[in-house]
Amino acid sequence: MNILIENPELQNISILPGVIPSMKEYEISVASATTIKGNFGDILTQQVTFDNFIVLYHVLHITQTLKFRIVDSTKCIPFLFGIKGTICQNLKPSEEPCLFEGQCKLLSVAALLSEKALPPGEYHLFQLNVAREYLSDLKSSYPHVLNDRFINEVGDPGCTHIYTTITPLRALLRIRSIMDCKDAGAAGRSQIIYSANQILIYIMEELATRKINGFSLSNKDKQTLIGIKAYIINNLGQKMTISALGKKFGIADTNLKINFKTMFHTTIHNFVIGSKMELAKLLLEEGEDVNQVACKVGYLETTNFIRAFKKLTGMTPANYRSGLAHRN
């Protein structure tokens, strides 16, 4: 994949192999990497290639509005995940966003960014390209999603339908495990291929079971609420308030509370707490310390986390983990 910057006024653009020092914190040790550097900022692309998968991680730190032309010759099916920053179609704030944080769309970075203007900001995009033949082999497991129409049209630039879902927590954890991979050897590649397979399975399950509610809402309101839900899932370690969410997404607090409950049949508060505890369970299942888990789901005091966990699950985090060990 080649990323070309089409701003004629920009100068001193360099394409460098590897990861530059200012981007080292995002390095995946086993990946090949290219950095585009200039007075507009830095763009890092990392890639790990397997027989049936290509894993790509893009980090964009830009200080000026950029126009892109991206050439991508791959014949794979792309699964694109918004990790940080919302990508909009153009500079008009009224336009519907193309990709929210915490959202997965089956389109490529080339389809997302080519011939579009991207405003200054920090953007992180994770892309999993999957061989069509590999997906075809999975059709019997997910017949409601992986039918012939899906296989033939998804990722096709001429297709008017774009498959979209909120990134499940389990998939998000696997994405972050790839982004945090610091082993440059065979163990690192094994970790990434395992995680890539798990991400694909979790997304297929989500596409097969998703339900769209809230038919009384406009399409614009639905997209905004989906963006809010995706943002919450992607930022469970942060403190969130209804007023802060409303300000970020341009919706009044009262409308946000009413519309969220109309569409998802739960309050924002219950959804946030439930998602935090679901993430906590997954982290406990992976063997993380209770204090670390509390921090990762946004609790400054472990005692408050233990209390919330017990209220929702009926047991303490330690008892939950002990139960897992007993079942295993």
Labels describing this entry:
single chain; 328 residues; alpha+beta; Arc Repressor Mutant, subunit A; 2 domains; 3-stranded antiparallel β-sheet
Describe this protein's structure:
About 3% of the residues have low confidence. The chain folds into 2 domains: 208 residues, no CATH class; 109 residues, Homeodomain-like (Arc Repressor Mutant, subunit A). An 8-stranded antiparallel sheet has the order 2-3-4-5-12-7-10-13, sandwiched between helices. Strands 1-6-11 form a 3-stranded antiparallel sheet. It is built from 12 helices and 13 strands. It has 328 residues and is an alpha+beta fold.
Note the run of SSEs as H and E. Answer: EEEEEEEEEEHEEHHEHHHHHHHHH
Report the β-strand fraction as a percent range: 15-25%
Separate helix tally: 12
Provide mean pLDDT, rounded. 85
| Structural class by sheet pairing and helices | alpha+beta
Task: Give the domain tally.
Answer: 2
* Number of separate strands: 13
Shape: globular
User: Could you describe the largest sheet, including whether it forms a barrel?
Assistant: 8 strands, antiparallel
How many angstroms separate the termini? 44 Å
Radius of gyration: 20 Å
Proportion of residues in helical segments = 40-55%
Spans of 5+ residues with little confidence (pLDDT < 50)? 90-95, 211-215
Kindly report the spatial arrangement of strands forming the biggest sheet: 2-3-4-5-12-7-10-13
